[in-house]
Design brief:
- The chain is α/β, with parallel strands linked by helices.
- It is built from 13 helices and 24 strands.
- It has helices at about 15-25, 40-45, 45-65, 80-105, 165, 185-195, 215-225, 320-335, 370-375, 390-395, 420-435, 440-445, 455-465, and strands at about 5-10, 30-35, 110, 115-120, 120-125, 130-140, 145, 160, 175-180, 200, 230, 235-245, 245-250, 260-265, 265-270, 270-275, 285-290, 290, 305, 355, 360-365, 380-385, 400-405, 410-420.
- The strands form 6 sheets. Strands 1, 2, 3, 4, 5, 6 and 19 form a 7-stranded mixed β-sheet that branches. Strands 8-15-9-10-11 form a 5-stranded parallel β-sheet.
- Helix 1 links the parallel strand 1 (about 5-10) and strand 2.
- Helix 3 (about 45-65) packs parallel to helix 6.
- The radius of gyration is 24 Å and the shape is globular.
- The model has no long low-confidence stretch (mean pLDDT about 95).
- Bound molecules: flavin-adenine dinucleotide.
- Flavin-adenine dinucleotide binds near residues 14, 46, 145 and 318.
Length: about 475
């Protein structure tokens, strides 16, 4: 006997659980299958617990600098790593339970166990209840991704860590090697640096946070170096020797010089691998490097089988996964006869990206270099935090905001920010980009004073030689 649904979602991350909720809102009988924890990587092992850790680091940073604000702290500030991690796990657990409540509220059936497709719209689930057989009119694969291992040094949870161990460390690293300087690598580097570890970041490409605008990468490198980190770009870790006492890494620097350096621990943050093997997908979908190929609504090549989130082509971000979840659910409802839904495919040029290191980094759209590569005649403007009253009042005068426009049409092509709270500010430009805004509309917009957002205005003015406070 198999249980039948309109839609089964395989995987309950921000892609899967959001898709299931939207299906339920549209009157579809929905189920979700999860082998580990409701909420997926994002809530349990990704976005949220890392931000909880980084918040502790941020507060420590402020307390370390209390005297800058005229405040006296009795005694030295000490980080209690175990307590910091406990708080982060508490936050993750609260949100995991929240997803459970949302499933109940929306009457979504939850099947805990390992799902394997037996056809495009059927699967078995092996869990605590034994083996269940499920069928549906449509199935959405939202199985996410996991950390990529270094072939010569697989993570061991003791000395060589992936993000999971880095989030629940067995001990405080004294001397930490971080391999990879994407968002995940840099966030952990920033956290452990603030917590008092001696941190070295090794990046293969010629700059850190390589997807960001070059000016942002350069500014961040300078800032992190000033905070005491060692940053090696154009460099590679050729080998790692793990012992009980630590990690010996063979590192080739940008000039080709090889040195052996000793660390207590190492975090490998060199990318992700999609969870798409051994779940019956191979014959049903096309894959490239393991990522399921989909159309702009999430359809695979098998009728009734859809895919969203980190198991499909990037960017591999929670908000991208959720957005795809909504589009996919609405497309399914439409196929099932709902005439009131009008699914919108994701606009890939307007997906913001945020890195919550210190200082924060945020961007949306094309970098100046990419805009030029794409054939645009470019107008770019930059405004520094030091020219903003609120930034100075906050004691956060480090950073800048850069905007990139098409010189002929005035279209906003991209925005790039580094500094305090930019991960909150970026959404202003994202809304603008989605509405296909131009420099004229942004210049005519009134920004409240005193706010950091005034720099968003000034950056646009700067692109046209009209900046007021610099
Ligand atoms: C350390 C870290 C920090 C991050 N920070 C951010 C951030 O700040 N902002 C941001 O946007 N993104 C961030 N991300 C990325 C974000 O977590 C992912 O993009 C997001 O979780 C992808 O969502 P998803 O629904 O596609 O998959 P996932 O969240 O990976 O969920 C997939 C779920 O499917 C389940 N599953 C897989 N296979 C099966 C199976 N066969 N049967 C049953 N269940 C299965 C898994 O157990 C998992 O729960 C971060 C990631 C990491 C690792």
């Amino acid at each position: 006997m198999s249980t039948t649904y309109d839609v089964i979602v395989l995987g309950s991350g921000p892609g899967g659980y959001v898709a299931a909720i939207r299906c339920a809102q549209l009157g579809l009988k929905a189920a979700i299958v999860e082998r580990e924890k409701l909420g997926g990587i994002c809530l349990n092992w990704g976005c949220i617990p890392t931000k909880a850790l980084l918040r502790s680091a941020e507060i420590k940073h402020y307390m370390d600098h209390a005297s800058d604000y005229g405040l006296k702290v009795a005694g030295a500030i000490e980080a209690d790593l175990e307590a910091v991690v406990k708080r982060s796990r508490g936050v993750a657990s609260q949100l995991n339970q929240g997803v459970g409540h949302l499933m109940k509220k929306n009457k979504i059936a939850v099947h805990m166990g390992e799902g394997t497709l037996t056809g495009p719209t059927s699967m078995t689930v092996k869990g605590e209840k034994g083996e269940e057989k499920l069928t549906a009119k449509h199935v959405i694969v939202a199985t996410g991704a996991r950390a990529r291992d270094l072939p010569f040094a697989p993570a061991d949870g003791k000395r060589v860590w992936t993000y999971r161990t880095a989030m629940t460390p067995p001990e405080m690293p004294k001397k930490l090697l971080v391999i990879g300087s994407g968002a995940i690598g840099i966030e952990f580097a920033s956290f452990y640096n603030d917590m008092g570890a001696e941190v070295t970041v090794v990046e293969m490409l010629d700059r850190i946070v390589p997807v960001e605008d070059k000016d942002v990468s350069a500014f961040l490198e300078k800032s992190l170096t000033k905070q005491g980190m060692t940053i090696m770009t154009g460099a590679g870790v050729d080998d790692i020797n793990v012992s009980d006492g630590g990690v010996m890494a063979k590192i080739k620097d940008a000039k080709g010089k090889v040195s052996e350096q000793e660390f207590t621990h190492c975090i490998v943050a060199i990318g992700i691998v999609p969870n798409t093997e051994d779940i019956g997908l191979e014959k049903l979908v096309e894959m490239e490097k393991g990522f399921v190929q989909i159309d702009e609504y999430g359809r695979t090549k098998s009728k009734g089988l859809w895919a969203i989130g980190d198991c499909t082509p990037g960017p591999w971000l929670a908000h991208k996964a959720s957005h795809e979840g909504v589009t996919c659910a609405e497309s399914i409802a439409k196929e099932l006869g709902n005439k009131d839904v009008h699914p919108h495919p994701l606009d890939r040029t307007s997906i913001p990206g945020c890195t919550y290191c210190h200082p924060q980094v945020a961007s949306v759209g094309l970098t100046e270099a990419k805009a030029k590569e794409a054939g645009h005649e470019v107008k770019a403007g930059t405004f520094p935090f030091i020219g903003n009253g609120k930034a100075i009042a906050l004691g956060e005068a480090e950073g800048f905001i850069k905007t990139v426009f098409d010189a002929k049409t005035g279209e906003l092509l991209g925005a790039h920010m580094i500094g305090a709270e930019v991960t909150e500010l970026i959404q202003g430009y994202t809304v603008g980009k989605t509405l296909e805004t131009t420099e004229a509309e942004l210049m005519n917009t009134v920004f409240p004073h005193p706010t950091l957002s005034e720099m968003m205005h000034e950056s646009v003015l700067a692109a046209y030689g009209k900046a007021l406070h610099i």
